[in-house]
Amino acid sequence: MLRDDRDILEMLKFELQFLDDGGYGNSVRTPRQQKRTFEDSPTCLNFSDPQRSLPCRDCVLMRFVPAERKSVSVPCRFIKFNEKGQTLQSLYQWGTEQEVEEVVGNWLRATIKKLEGE
Question: Rounded to the nearest 5°, which phi and psi values hold at 72?
């Protein structure tokens, strides 16, 4: 396994643990503000940076972003999680928080399993 793949695998495992531990649950400081998957995670290059100073192109998740979406302001919202083509963008529009967590969790588990098999 290449070093980049190990970095991705470690990040995805951390992200899954963060999700499973309720990391995207409502904050005590901002209970009405919905957290954004990946963007509000410590794995995000711009975590806690409202200016978003670091370019998303340096994020390991870019590997999973479709080419036509790599230049949008938040490309990780367009990772296709399943055969239905669900993305964070579509889930934020049409899904519930529970659906977001379920779809993202399933994708993380499947992607981790695939990378571990390579």
Answer: -75, 165
Torsion (CA) 110, 92, 30, 54 in degrees, nearest 10: 70
Find out whether 48 and 41 touch, Cβ atoms under 8 Å: no
> Which region, left, alpha or beta, applies to residue 107 given φ > 0 means left and ψ of -120 to 50 means alpha?
alpha
Average pLDDT on 43-70 reads 93
Q: Is the separation of the CB atoms in 78 and 87 below 8 Å? A: yes
For residue range 28-47, what is the model confidence (pLDDT) as tens digits? 555 556 779 999 999 999 99
Task: Name the CA radius of gyration of the chain, rounded.
Answer: 14
Tokens coding 53: 């100073």
H or E segment and range at residue 108:
helix 97-117
95 residue type, one letter: G
